[in-house]
Design goal:
Shape: globular
Strand content: 15-25%
Bound molecules: hexanoyl-coenzyme A
GO molecular function, one term: catalytic activity
Largest sheet: 6 strands, mixed
Number of strands: 10
Family: Belongs to the enoyl-CoA hydratase/isomerase family.
Organism: Smittium megazygosporum
Protein name: Enoyl-CoA hydratase
Structural class: alpha/beta
Distance between the termini: 54 Å
Strand order of the largest sheet: 1-2-3-5-7-10
Radius of gyration: 17 Å
Length: 227
């Protein structure tokens, strides 16, 4: 398949997707999200592949939904075209996906990272949900996956202020990412973890992924135990 906005490769059993729309800091236009989904599905059905790594450039993982595309749409277009369909489809990928994030991961870019199963951050990674500054809500996980990752108060703060200043170390302290690495090491670290995962039993890996994603937030479990 010919892709224009991503670069797809493999390293042994690891499928690699590099977002490659540098002029727009990997803003998630329809073509880009379509290509990412297509590549993910191809890796998911490829028996040689055990895990997948998604990365961007040093400057940007992804600076969000494509604002220019977003502004052209009316609410009726958004509903008719099911513009966030790609996001729900990514949740159906059975193989583990690791995000190696450098630079900006804002809005839909932060949400794309959170759709992945593990996030590693480069030292210069910065996360945020600036949707509120555009008068919209973080519609692809910012109000759901982010709460699971960092808890309610921090998720509220991030989404309500629209601040784009959650740097790698703070993201690590908050639990959003699993580790922080030098800019030039984060990708290779992600690939090495993906290789390790690829050696494990594929059915067990798929079941673990599915079970962990079914887990409600710890707060929810606490509530049930409490009553
Ligand atoms: C379209 C974008 C873009 C975006 C950057 N670009 N972000 N194009 N959509 N989200 C384009 C710019 O227009 C510019 O193109 C080029 O990328 C470089 O960007 P600069 O702004 O010149 O770079 P810099 O000064 O380094 O600033 C980087 C930045 C800033 C801080 C990341 O670009 C920025 O604030 N971007 C918007 C971030 C944002 O609000 N994202 C959330 C979107 S809402 P030209 O051609 O002009 O040079 C969202 C909703 C999610 O994500 C809903 C679910 C999917």
């Amino acid at each position: 398949t010919k892709y224009e906005m991503i670069i797809v490769s493999t390293d042994g059993p690891v499928g690699i997707i590099r977002l490659n729309r540098p002029d727009a800091l990997n803003a998630l236009c329809r073509q880009l999200t379509t290509e990412v989904l297509q590549a993910l599905k191809a890796f998911d059905t490829d028996r040689q592949i055990g895990a997948i790594v998604i990365t961007g450039s040093d400057r940007a993982f992804a600076a969000g939904a494509d604002i220019k595309e977003m502004y052209q749409k009316k609410l009726s277009d958004i509903l008719n075209e099911d513009v966030l369909n790609w996001a729900s489809e990514i949740s159906s990928i059975r193989k583990p996906i690791i995000a190696a994030v450098n630079g900006y991961a804002f809005g839909g870019g932060c949400e794309l990272a959170m759709m992945c199963d593990i996030i590693y951050a480069g030292e210069k990674a910065v996360f945020g949900q600036p949707e509120i500054n555009l008068g919209v809500i973080p519609g692809a996980g910012g109000t759901q996956r982010l709460v699971k990752a960092v808890g309610k108060s921090k998720a509220m703060e991030i989404c309500l202020t629209g601040n784009v200043n959650l740097r790698a170390q703070e993201a690590y302290a908050a639990g959003l990412v699993s580790g922080v690495y030098p800019v030039d090491k984060v990708f290779s670290h992600a690939v090495s973890v993906a290789k390790k995962i690829s050696q494990q039993s594929q059915p067990a890996i798929a079941m673990i992924k599915s079970a962990i994603n079914e887990c409600k937030s710890p707060l929810h479990i606490l509530t049930i135990e409490h009553y």
